[in-house]
Amino acid sequence: MKRVCLIMALGMLSLPALADGDIASGQNKAAACVACHGMEGKVSVPAYPNIAGQQALYLELAMKAYKDGGRSGGQAEVMKAYMSMLGEQDIKDLAAYYASLKP
Amino acid sequence: MKRVCLIMALGMLSLPALADGDIASGQNKAAACVACHGMEGKVSVPAYPNIAGQQALYLELAMKAYKDGGRSGGQAEVMKAYMSMLGEQDIKDLAAYYASLKP
Q1: Which residue in chain B has the smallest CA separation from A79?
Q2: A95 to each of A100, B3, B13, how far by Cα in Å?
Q3: What does the pLDDT average to over A11-25?
Q4: Chain B residue with the nearest C-alpha to that of A66
Q5: CA distance B86 to chain A (A)
Q6: Residue B67 is part of a domain; what is its CATH number?
Q7: Is the residue at B86 inside a domain?
């Protein structure tokens, strides 16, 4: 447990800055996300996550992880393919948009 | 886009069975999760995900991915350390508990 707490503490020290995406731009860029993440971020497939109202920074980090190959298994290959088409600002905008929705 | 759709279709064909965890058992096992994921799955640290009301199967798959090393970066080392202490049923119970909470 001590090791876990140490790793957690170090992780919190290195948290990146807050996301600063544009909600309206994110909404315009979200068309492709609907197929899996549903209208307004609520899914019907049990293996996929709801993302409406999720923390913007977490969404940003998750999208970057998929893009950079930091996540494997599940739908990681699909996510990597989509994320490879997106730039830094696109990811921030999508994160801001989904974070703004009611869970 | 065709490649993405094919991968997505293949992914949906291989979806595992629904989670069948026990909510009450999950609540009892969730004490360690509170530090990062907050009381009842709502977080205060922007880099961490809210998990209240998330899809049970998605939560199960995510926990297994952390345990098996299928996710890296972010808090993956912390999650792996915690998940290494959990068995299959523990993971299903935690997934059922968090999925049962109001987002």
Answers
A1: B4
A2: 9, 25, 28
A3: 68
A4: B71
A5: 13
A6: 1.10.760.10
A7: yes
